[in-house]
């Protein structure tokens, strides 16, 4: 029996699942879009909750999309919690307990899909068990006004930490392998989340939305942002998502120049959202290059975690998996 005078052993350092994976393989394949894939399958996401709406109405469809990404070759499923916040659910009349239950459910759905894939995969499949990343969308996602692509919230880091803390605590308790802090428009929010993950003993990635080949959506140099995250042990990868694919290689090089952390990218498919007509239109990268071919450029620039965001699909992830499988 431990004496009252025996010092309490220090808590074990949280595992870095990205480092463990990349120690064995050159790349980690992320999944693709969730919300636009749900829409492609008939879901109506015209709601401030966006994909989180289906946590209430059609959770089985979310699970099915996760499973199809695993079957396609994804090594990570990102949960449907991007727009799942206490504030957003409160506007739908849900109290804090119900909101927390839905956030936990978002992680459970991905975990259930992983369990199903593990049951059905061939006995000789050498792919390690996939990871489940809990999506942590930016403050602007809760506002549902597009400000995750602008920044300039008018909030300091302390206020952003106060906003994100309750959700991070719930997602930690849900048992996700890591946090996916994504589509962040500015360094202030990235630092707020990194500070919280350090404080809560979490591991996760930080991924920015970017306006061009060198700057976040708010206009900060992406290299400076990567350098500013160096002190945070919780940040296990740094990168870019929900950004036009033609900007990705340049952004990767700028990030790599300022950090030793693995770089992740999951850009949009190349289409452009027409907010007035509310439709997707072909962009400059859609007509002549397949998504997996573009991904080779991002890999050559130094990205080691690669997947897709809006308008990408399980077919895109399967093509990427086949290409890397052929390379051995």
UniProtKB/TrEMBL annotation:
UniProt-annotated binding residues for Zn(2+): 242, 309-310
Q: Which Gene3D superfamilies match?
A: Homocysteine-binding-like domain
Q: Name one Pfam family in it.
A: S-methyl_trans
- What's noted on cofactor binding? Binds 1 zinc ion per subunit.
Instruction: Tell me the Gene Ontology biological-process terms attached to this UniProt entry.
Output: methionine biosynthetic process; methylation; S-methylmethionine cycle
InterPro entries xref list: BHMT-like, HCY_dom, HCY_dom_sf, Hcy_S-methyltransferase
- Hcy-binding domain sequence ranges: 16-324
- What name does the UniProt record give this protein? S-methylmethionine:homocysteine methyltransferase
Annotated organism of origin:
Sphaerotilus natans subsp. natans DSM 6575
